[in-house]
């Protein structure tokens, strides 16, 4: 387990990427969401591993990318904040296909025991070309993740709906 690896997860459109950027600006290492990077790649190349087209292929690519991200950051000396990551991807694959991948991957590749979840925040939720699902799908994903993390031995901390700076302070305070 790497206590330095911190996961930001939760509701899609809840402000994770914005919080990640604030943590980056404070000097912390960050890893952008695998799903966003995969969607960008697939759209640019005409690929089909998109969550709205082939969710299983998308989730498998996200698992591979999350593992590569962890490997790339293994020697980084400070905190590393991940926008989603391995557990989110494995959980999505297992929920979609029934393929039992979550427990084994989660046991072998641990993060810090504290996981920060962005709650549903309809007032800031917005779709875009890379986020084509609606708020209902985001809520279902959130409900799944808020159960998955504690079931794997993580303490899920719900982020308050406050300014980005206050959220960054909240996260760092919990980690100190």
TrEMBL record:
UniProt cross-references to InterPro entries, sorted A to Z: NadR/Ttd14_AAA_dom (IPR038727), P-loop_NTPase (IPR027417)
Highest rank taxon of the organism: Bacteria
UniProt xrefs under SUPFAM superfamilies: P-loop containing nucleoside triphosphate hydrolases
Location of the NadR/Ttd14 AAA domain: 6-167
Name of the protein: AAA family ATPase
Organism of origin: Shinella lacus
Taxonomic lineage: Bacteria, Pseudomonadati, Pseudomonadota, Alphaproteobacteria, Hyphomicrobiales
């Amino acid at each position: 387990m790497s206590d330095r690896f911190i996961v930001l997860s939760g509701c899609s459109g809840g402000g994770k990427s914005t919080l990640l950027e604030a943590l980056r600006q404070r000097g912390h290492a960050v890893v952008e969401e695998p799903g966003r990077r995969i969607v960008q790649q697939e759209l640019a190349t005409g690929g089909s591993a998109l969550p709205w087209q082939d969710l299983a292929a998308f989730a498998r690519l996200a698992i591979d990318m999350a593992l590569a991200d962890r490997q790339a950051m293994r020697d980084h000396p400070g905190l590393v904040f991940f926008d989603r990551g391995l557990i989110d991807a494995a959980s999505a694959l297992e929920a979609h296909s029934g393929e039992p991948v979550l427990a084994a991957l989660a046991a072998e590749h641990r993060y810090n025991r504290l996981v920060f979840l962005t709650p549903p925040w309809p007032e800031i939720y917005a779709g875009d070309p890379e986020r084509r699902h609606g708020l209902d799908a985001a809520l279902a994903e959130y409900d799944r993740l808020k159960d998955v993390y504690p079931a794997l031995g993580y303490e899920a901390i719900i982020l308050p709906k406050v300014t980005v700076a206050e959220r960054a302070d909240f996260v760092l305070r919990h980690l100190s």
